[in-house]
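Here is a typical sample entry:
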Amino acid sequence: MFSSGEGLEAGKTKVKYKEVEIGLVQSVTLSEDRSYVLVRVQLKKEAKSFTAADSRFWVVRPRVALSGVSELSTLLFGPYIGAEAGVASEKKATFAGLESPPVVTRDASGKQYVLHTADIGSLDIGAPVYYRRIKVGQVIAYHLDDDGKGITVRIFVNTPYDRLVGVNTRFWHASGIEMQLSPAGFSLQTQSLASIVLGGLSFQAPDGGSGPKAAENTAFTLAANHAEALTEKDGEPRMVLLNFKQSVRGLTPGAEISFRGVVLGKVKSVGIEYDSSQKEFVMPVLGEVYPARLSGTVAVDEGKQPAHTPQQRLQSMLDRGLVAQLRTANLLTGHAFIALDFFPKGFPSKVAKKAGPPGADVSAPGTLIELPTIPGGSDEIQAQIAEITRKVSKVPFDQIGDDLQQSLRAFKQTLDRAGQLTAQLNNDVAPEIAGAMKDVRKSLGAVERTLAEDAPWQQDLRETLQELARAAASLRVLTDYLERHPEAIIRGKREDKP
């Protein structure tokens, strides 16, 4: 049974397995309710194994898809019915034909795995599966989950690459071009040209290794990108609610929630609500934080035991007055993030009443924690500018101007008086100064004449010095004689004999 009999002709269309004819179409008729086409075929004796209950049949026609053009030979020789023998022991004569050829046949060597994702993206049946940019498999099927909240994707990884799939292996969408604009800047990652057109999947082991080999049909989570896939698991997240009364421009889902530079979580959604009691709009921001990222211990209070578990560490920070602030992460792109810190004017955090029983704490799964917020970013700068403006507006510039004018007038009067005093000094004191200078010149002339070489007192001084020199010579002669004849002091000088 097929949904369409396009290209099928009785007595002409063949049944083939691996391009070998194993049967022939006998008739093509429409069902009684006209919902499908009945195709009767005659198989050869050597094709009895194709009557197994799990055998599969499909129509092979020319196919033009993004992945390429296939089955071009059917343009010349016409469509045919492809077949695959089953392995079941039961036999039957009626089969439901496949609408398209199976992506993986039973004789293919490898393993199938199950992936769960929230979005199929650009994936389609036949999309490639890559390992380090080498094609190692393909997508064979996908369907919407029963609850409508996710999609299940089945993939096939060929041998020997299936041995690379372990229980810790991470899978992610490899759409060919992965662009990300974040506070850190712009990043671009590319896969093969085929994945750009078809989409695709990639897998890789984390730093800790892939772990034991995964059995067939093992289920994995399909991440949105490479970074998300290889991010270490941080346990169960805790939901937080932040109500901002300022503009949240630049804050988008996925923005970081960090504590002093350490990323603790991310923003899940940004909304707007009207607070009728305060008669103003608030911007509720829902986010998730991972307490397990708080390594080490945090003391709760003095005299109490330190907090060791992630939940206790988070609870300790909340008790100390953890506050959220919106900040700009990148001035070029305008991206914003939420900073958590202990601010001087912090307020105690509380558990939102709408998310759990009264008295619930952060250790309870699903508890929504409401954190107080303070203005930040451009709003904080605007508030500071407004405060400066208010202070400047209080300065009495008019009074200061009047006082300055009075001071200038007084200074001008002082200058005028100084000018008058200078003129008076020039008129009264100048003649006296001139007379004094003449007397000084006369005195200097007299001193000059006195000190001249031909002055009389200098001649007298030279004669006196000569007399003193002669007296000193006589005194030396007398001293020498007395040293030789000390008795001369008593007897006198002895007369020389003739």
